[in-house]
Amino acid sequence: xxxxxxxxxxxxxxxxxxxxxxxxxxxxxxxxxxxxxxxxxxxxxxxxxxxxxxxxxxxxxxxxxxxxxxxxxxxxxxxxxxxxxxxxxxxxxxxxxxxxxxxxxxxxxxxxxxxxxxxxxxxxxxxxxxxxxxxxxxxxxxxxxxxxxxxxxxxxxxxxxxxxxxxxxxxxxxxxxxxxxxxxxxxx
Length: 188
What we know:
The protein is of the alpha+beta class.
C-alpha cells in the first residue's frame, strides 16, 4: 500500500478528517478541533490526510517545535484498518519528517480492564513493530497516563513538553505532567 500525506486546510477532506477525529479519540484526550485548525496558521501544526489514489484512509495531526514533531493524533478509517495503511502511513511520516525526532504518546499498558489492555498492548506492539522505541518516562496527559515512544532518537521530557508549549501554548502544556521513569526495555 502506498500512502500519500496531504496537508488539508478546508473543504470536504477536512470534514472527513474532523469526523474521524471526533469518533476515534476519547473526549478526555481531544483538544477543540478549532484549536488544531488555527494552529495550522502558525505553521506549527499540520493536519494531514492519509490517502491512496485520492481515497481517504485516515489522519495524522502533527505538532512541531525545532527538530521535534509530535504525532499528536493518528487514526486509520475503520474500513481500511488491518490492511497495512497504518504501517504505510508511519513510513510516509518518517519520510516527511526525515532528520526530525518523531514523538508518539500511547495510553499506558498498565491497565486493569482486560479488553482495554489488549487494545493498548496491540497499539504498542504496532508502533514497536514499525521501528519506534520506548522513551524512558511516563506522562500524565490531561489525566490519562501515557507511555512515550520515538523514532529511535532520545527526547527528554522537557523537550517533549516544549512541543506543546510552542504549538499550543501554556494553557495546554500546563495540563501535562511528568509521572516518572519507565522501566528499562528489558524489564518490559
